[in-house]
Amino acid sequence: MHLSKVAQWVENSVKNAVAPVTGMGDNVDKVDLPKAYAVTDSKHAVGVFPPALQPHLGDEFKSYDGQVGYFNPQGGWAEAKNATLSMLNEARRMGAEVVSNARVTSLVYAEPKYDQTKPKVIGVKTADGRTFLADRVVLAAGCWTSSLLDQLKLSLPRSVLKATAHCVLTLKLNPEVAQKFKGAPVTFNMYSGFYTFEPNADGILKCAIHGTGSLDFDPANYPGTDFPNVATEKQLKHMIAELRSQYPILQLEGPNKNAEIHFTRMCWYSDSVDENFLIDFFPGVDGLLVASGDSGHGFKSGTDELVPDFGLSSHQRRVFSFAHHLEMNDPANPNRTSMDSIRIGEEAPNPESYLESDAIKAKM
């Protein structure tokens, strides 16, 4: 990504971060929270990290010449797995019935009426022969959305939603070094797409690359609930090189070893071309709401608040619509964009300067 584009991204991000939140009602307590700001030099960059970690930062933060960035003290991270489990348990507590092992194979349509202009979906059938009827069917199948729609004979142009696979790496840190990271911010390299989280309570540090991903994997071939371990030597070397450029304190081998590879896993995206969600009723069909297009940021928005009542703003209704996504994929559209043009990611630092390939192989 060109520097001028990154600089504009930083400027817009700071503006968005300091803008007042709207639509929350008049009863919300007005709290003077710390504001986001642009990071312009190495002193600012190092200063956002906990004091115990500052002496151990790499050149990516200490050598700031020619870089641009911003820090948002209101930002952070959440434990997506535990949050999702909590929501699931709350739904059950409120009376929702959760049915497991129910692989949908077809839709159930209402008998056509004389004045009916399009078919109406009233339920689904599963592989074991069960039928579930509903006033409205919400299809929120993540990366499986496109292939499931194909199976249900409601195909979309493949470019509207594209399943991509991304490698996630986690390290288990020794307690002493993990303590130095306590309070560390989420980091995101806008050139490589590499991002990291503060280690959790168990000392597990997670990192990944938000990029164009891989198209070599078909989610239809991974129907289970396990997370496939598909990291290649190249991917591991790439990510560890990125991690070491930020945190050279992390030693994966030798007498000063203080961390080890915990696991790798595949993270699926359902990518839309401009990274907007797709939340709309399927064209030409009544009763079927599609909610997909997470594009790697599905957890952050509280989509549970958007989908049940289709509670979108006028802007969201436009950019989350089928019409918008089909338009963005129209070759004749002069404003058509490419995922590759908005996703970031350049070559990683030379990994040979950090780890020998044999050491990587031993971890796989």
TrEMBL record:
Region span, Disordered: 330-350
Species for this entry: Malassezia brasiliensis
Keyword Flavoprotein included in the entry's annotation: yes
GO molecular function, one term: proline dehydrogenase activity
Protein name: FAD dependent oxidoreductase domain-containing protein
Family: Belongs to the MSOX/MTOX family.
Required cofactor(s): FAD
Ribonucleoprotein found in the keyword field: no
Domain FAD dependent oxidoreductase residues, every copy: 66-302
